[in-house]
Amino acid sequence: MSQDILVAGNIEVAFGGGRRLFGSARPEVKVLRGVSVRIGRGETVGIVGESGSGKTTLGRALLRHTIRRIVTEPMRFHGVAKDSADAETRVLEIFERFSLAVACLDRYPHELSGGQRQRIGIARVALLAPDFVLADEIVSGLDVSTQAQALNLLKGLSRDLGLSMAFISHDLSVIRAVCDRVYVLNAGEVVEEGACEALFANPRHPYTRALIDAIPLPRVDPNWLGRAAATEILA
Ligand SMILES: Nc1ncnc2c1ncn2[C@@H]1O[C@H](COP(=O)(O)OP(=O)(O)O)[C@@H](O)[C@H]1O
Ligand SMILES: [Mg+2]
Fold first, then answer.
1. Partner of 165 at 20 to 30 A CA spacing, among 16, 86, 127, 220?
2. Is 31 in the pocket of ligand 1 (CB under 6 A)?
3. CA of 82 to the centre of ligand 1 (A)
4. Residue 110 CA, ligand 2 centroid: distance in Å
5. What pLDDT was estimated at residue 229?
6. Is the Cβ–Cβ distance between 126 and 161 less than 8 Å?
7. Ligand 1 atom, smallest distance to 29 CA
8. How far is the CA of 31 from the centre of ligand 1 (A)?
9. pTM (2 decimals)?
């Protein structure tokens, strides 16, 4: 039995190529030229080289599963899909529902936007139809409109599948958008617990009040606006 955990032979990666929108051909730049790597079980292998030598590209190539593999493998593992045709049908259904282009299936994660990756992560959950999901800061790092999109999908999913979910977030506005009930944790203790809407309408604990007050609101202070306009006129 092989003692290798990873064997990759003759990896070639090139960027560019093709034509620009108007006119000239885009030169293709070969970044990896036939790189072979073997990593033994329990072995730590260094990949070293100057900046731009292709280390990160190689690292990504070693994990490069396509999106198709990323979404179908857990279904096969958990015995959710009968066979690969069944898996593909389910994937296409969910991609349509989540407005994900079928072309994404043959892409690699780093080729997609953060929002697409997030929707694919949620699609992966939907395909497994679990009873319980632990979602830990799953929308932090996304911009607000991408967050809203992902949260709407998640809400629809939990309604349709009857999902139970522990939704962990440092962001109360995100909690408010998706949760039924909430526990407010401060320094390792629950300081307040209750139905989400009631807690927002009438926070009892000062810590909860402080958290709610810290939510940025799109409110314009008329005095500030007046001053800014005045400054502009004077200048
Ligand atoms: N998405 C990309 N598009 C075009 N060129 C890229 C892309 N990613 C990396 N490169 C180029 O590939 C080369 C290797 O980059 P990289 O793997 O990030 O090197 P390293 O991690 O060793 O600094 C660099 O010349 C870089 O500009
Ligand atoms: Mg790098």
1. 86
2. yes
3. 40
4. 14
5. 46
6. yes
7. 5
8. 7
9. 0.65
